[in-house]
Amino acid sequence: MAQRNTWQRERVREELSDVRGFVSAQSLHQALREANTGIGLATVYRALAGLAASGEADSLQSPEGEALYRACSSEGHHHHLICRSCGMTVEIEATDVEQWAQRTAALHGFRDAEHVVDIFGLCASCANAAAQE
Ligand SMILES: [Zn+2]
Ligand SMILES: [Zn+2]
Ligand SMILES: [Zn+2]
């Protein structure tokens, strides 16, 4: 089939932007299934990969090695602070990291260097809740 299933990609994008933090393809697929969209898991994977490739979604690896996705509110290069308990995500700029990465790459004779830096931790309210247990 030559025709691209753009409505499915649109639907995946919509669902993704309703999510507060990063989400796996499987849990997004679960939500789409509950909404009776009939979109298969393979299509969700493809749509997410496409959105990530075109810069419309952020992708990252969880500490457990699972691929996670999010519709990003910032454009361009940025980093994330992610709560590993509730998934709350803050988009951050990291000027120090940019300078360090450029310097380090140049020091080793690398050009066109890119980097991925995301910080996982417990957000303030999850840390509070944990302290009160
Ligand atoms: Zn982002
Ligand atoms: Zn949290
Ligand atoms: Zn950076």
Automatic annotation (TrEMBL):
Gene3D superfamilies, sorted: 3.30.1490.190, Winged helix-like DNA-binding domain superfamily/Winged helix DNA-binding domain (1.10.10.10)
Binding-site residues, Zn(2+): 83, 86, 123, 126
Needed co-factor(s): Mn(2+); Fe(2+); Zn(2+)
Binding site for Fe cation: 77, 98, 115
Cofactor binding note from Swiss-Prot or TrEMBL: Binds 1 Mn(2+) or Fe(2+) ion per subunit. Binds 1 zinc ion per subunit.
Keyword Nucleotide-binding: no
First-listed, main subcellular location of the protein, grouped into a coarse class: cytoplasm
One GO cellular component, as annotated: cytosol
UniProt entry keywords in alphabetical sequence: Cytoplasm, DNA-binding, Iron, Metal-binding, Repressor, Transcription, Transcription regulation, Zinc
GO molecular function, one term: zinc ion binding
Lineage: superkingdom: Bacteria
Location(s) in or outside the cell: Cytoplasm
GO process annotations (BP): negative regulation of DNA-templated transcription; regulation of secondary metabolite biosynthetic process
Similarity section: Belongs to the Fur family.
PANTHER family in UniProt: FERRIC UPTAKE REGULATION PROTEIN, ZINC UPTAKE REGULATION PROTEIN
Self-association and partners: Homodimer.
Listed name of the protein: Zinc uptake regulation protein
